[in-house]
Amino acid sequence: MPSRERVADLIAMVQQGRFVEAIEAFYAQDATMQENLGPPRCGRDTLLAHEKRMLGSFEWVRARAASPYLVEGDNVVIHWLFEGRMRDGSTYGLDELAWQRWHGDRIVEERFYYDPAARRPGPAENAEVTSRHDSTA
After folding, report:
1. Which of 49, 81, 91, 93 has the CB geometry, 3.0–4.6 Å to 124, for a possible disulfide?
2. Which domains does the chain have, with CATH numbers?
3. What is d(CA 1, CA 76) in angstroms, rounded to the nearest whole number?
4. Eight-class DSSP state of 133
5. Long-range contacts: 39-48, Cβ < 8 Å, 24+?
């Protein structure tokens, strides 16, 4: 069961734009991630590779926790808001819930819930940049 402080540390790292480092620090070696009803990605190495590929499609991206997070035993729910600018110049926004199952202080299972049709242009024109990603990522 994670402590509230451990979950707060995860949130802080993600909000700092340290997405890859968060996976390294908070996910179990055999962790899984799943997008809505899609097939799960399995294993931390796979999660890291996917995250790096995804970040490579952005000029910049930032995340913030939109509301208080929930911790109930081994279960955590975080409401995330993402925004960014894609390499093609388009903007990106996503409102999602991340449900996580923890074992001790590591995430072993995570599932993201969002409406893919609700992805929206983000306010990229005046956005403060949290994390920049060059094409070598």
Report:
1. 91
2. 4-126 (3.10.450.50)
3. 10
4. -
5. 47/23, 48/20, 48/23, 48/24
Residue (of 17, 117, 114, 7) closest to 64 by Cα position: 17
Structure tokens given for 78: 């975080």
What DSSP string runs through 45-80?
HHHHHHHHHHHHTEEEEEEEE-S--EEETTEEEEEE
Q: What angle, 0 to 180 degrees and rounded to 10, lies between the N-to-C axes of helices 44-56 and 19-26?
A: 170
26-75 pLDDT, tens digit per residue, is: 999 999 999 999 999 999 999 999 999 999 999 999 999 998 999 999 99
In Å, what is the CA distance from 95 to each residue of 6, 42, 81, 116? 23, 24, 5, 10
Of 47, 61, 46, give the one whose Cα is nearest residue 127: 61
Q: Which of 68, 70, 76, 77 is nearest to 1 (CA)?
A: 76
